[in-house]
Design brief:
- The protein has 426 residues and is an alpha/beta fold.
- The chain has a single domain, classed as 3-Layer(aba) Sandwich (Rossmann fold).
- The chain is built from 16 helices and eleven strands.
- The strands form two sheets. Strands 1-2-4-6-5-7-8-9-10 form a nine-stranded mixed beta sheet, sandwiched between helices. It has a two-stranded parallel sheet with strand order 3-11.
- Helix 9 links the parallel strand 5 and strand 6.
- The longest helix has 24 residues.
- It is globular and about 65 Å long.
- The chain starts with a helix and ends with a strand.
Length: 426
Amino acid sequence: MLRNLYARWMFAWETALTTRDTNRIVRPVEWGFDWLEDFARPRGLMPDPAIVRDPAAVQANHDALLAINQAILRDREAFYGYARPTDFRLEERHPLLFPTNVRPETLRRDAQLRAAAAAGRAKTAHFLRFTSPVRTPYPENDLVNARWYPASPEKQRAARQAGKPRQAIIVMPQWNADAFSHNALCALFNRFGISALRLSKPYHDIRRPAELERSDYAVSSNLGRTIAACRQGVVDIRSCVDWLEQQGYEQFGILGTSLGSCYAFIAAAMDPRLQICAFNHASMSFGDVVWTGQSSRHIRAACESVMTQEQLNGVWACISPVSFMDLFPAAPRKVLAVHATYDLTFLRRYSLEVLESFRRHGVDFQSRVLPCGHYTTGETPYKFMDGWFLGSFVHRAFKELAASGKRALSATRPTSAQPERDLIAR
């Protein structure tokens, strides 16, 4: 009885949080082949433009995008490979919110932060900036942004004196996160002597094109652009590890939430240097989440006119963790998976599939369960429970890794002659 009442209350709260924003837009389905042209054209996989423009050629376009997916999965390193950036730099500026909703309280907070920055009353912060190896038509999106939280000099000095390796973690917040999301976690990791890079995903906060209120281009009914955004996010993560290595860091972790967990999983599967992984809400298939999740109902509304859930899974197989599960256990790593019982965005059954797959593949993982939903994870008291799960795991895992003395494995090194991705939409 009490359990049923709690479930109904939680589902109602979750639904209220996922429906309060009024700026979700139902956009028409676009196949987005132009976003994948650099990979598809040399392999003879670009469809005839006349077919792409034909609204009646749904099956032909679906089959063409499916063929590109299959080619990507046959050569994942070619698609997710990259040339190491050469323009890494630290930028000092006032942190701003970059909100993705138009609620009055959010806009008011944004205005206050901007006013404080303009008046010189706000503290500045350091941000890692570099040009993404994956290019898009949006210059602001292609300038990667990661807020830098170095551990204090005292903690780093104590670690060196104790002979401990330098440790750092990359933090990837959720879809449509503002620029302050997950910053508290980074500060927490600093207390443990772990430096942190809070990475802005493609089309998020300062990288968001001016034409957008939300980070819609990261996940949308433009199928090829959604694939390209994931590709860019994965490559940006790997590039951040390159920079950390240049700074002398030796052991690396990654924490991703929701969409960030998808990017984080694929990056870890492709890059053995990421030895500690925390996945905060995870699912096996990108298409399943978009089709069934409350927060992506506007994308399903567009897609279901031309395809089924199974077909959407097929055309987004190359950005689904299930397609990389065979690579993930190849490097030794410690893993945490957090899911929520009443999640209406990443349905519980899909999160349980992740745990079962970890078991089948012999992954060294821990599982933690939140008695809430996806959006309510950010509400009191659940955000503190989630923070405890994530913080305690990261602290313990890095401590054990330091004691083991195992430095990060080498990643496949791209050569400077390897061409950059040039994904200019046509």
